C-alpha cells in the first residue's frame, strides 16, 4: 500500500486533566473517503486539528503526506471547518479571491457554481447551503490532495447535502483522500471506511458492514400498541428506538424483548432483524460509557474492531 496521505499514530491529546483524544491510530489513503463518527465531544475535531497541525499531540505522532505537518504539507490540504472559515463581511467572490491569493494562485477557481448565483453578495447575506458550497469551492480551489471536512453538511437541506456529497465522490474518484465527520448515518454509509470515536477513544473501525457484523435488533409488530411498547422497553433500560410507529430494540435477544412486553401487559409479536449502523453505534456508545480504556487496532485493520458485538 502506498504511503497514507494522513496518518495519526497513537495520538493522545490532553487539555489539563481531561483527555480529549486517547491513543487513536488512523490513516487516510489516496482516493478513499474515511468517515469519522461519534457523539458530540467524542474528540473528532481535536483529532482533525492534530492532523492539520493546529493542535500538538500530547503523545503520538501525526504525518501528512509522509511528513510532520508543516506549512508545506498544509498547502496540499483542503479544510472545511465546522464554522466554514469564510469571511462573512466579504462577498462570495472576494472570499474565493482571498483564498486564491493565500494559496499563491493567480486567479480564483476556474469554475464556481456559487459566484454566478451569489458572487456579489456578502457571505453573511446568503443561505447556509450556498455558504457551504462556497466553503467547498474555497477549499478545492488549489486542488488539494487531501480534503478534511468537519460536518460539511450540518444544517443544510437534502438537495444541498446530495450536491456536496457528489463533490466529495468526484474528488475521491480523482484520487483525493477525504476525511469527513458526520452525524448522518446515510452519509456514513457513503464512506469507504469508518472510524468510530467515543470519549476520545477509537471504539470501532472498518466498513459499515464490518462494524455492524452479526449484531441483531428486534422489531415489535407495528400493529401492536407501539406507544405502550416503547414506554415499557424504555423503562426497562433497553436501547429502544422509534421510527414512525416502528419500535426497535438494538442488540437484545428477542426473548428478552418479548418478556419485557409481556410483563408490561403489552400484547405484541417480535421478530429478529439485522441491526442498522445507527443501532450498532447506540450499542457501542452504551458499552463505551461504562468501559475502561482498551487498546484498539489501527483503523485500517482488515476487520472491524468493536467494543461490543
Ligand atoms: N482547547 C480545549 N480546551 C479544553 N477542552 C477542549 C478543547 N478543545 C476541545 N476540548 C474538549 O475536548 C472534547 C472533545 O471535543 P471535540 O470538539 O474534539 O469533539 P467532537 O467530537 O468534535 O464534538 P462535536 O461533534 O460536538 O464537534 C470536548 O469535551 C471538548 O470540550
UniProtKB/TrEMBL annotation:
This is ABC transporter domain-containing protein. Residues 289-309 are annotated as: Disordered. Residues 6-224 form the ABC transporter domain. It comes from Actinomadura meridiana. Residues 293-309 have a biased composition (Low complexity). The keyword 4Fe-4S does not apply. Keywords: ATP-binding, Nucleotide-binding. InterPro entries: AAA+_ATPase, ABC_transporter-like_ATP-bd, P-loop_NTPase.
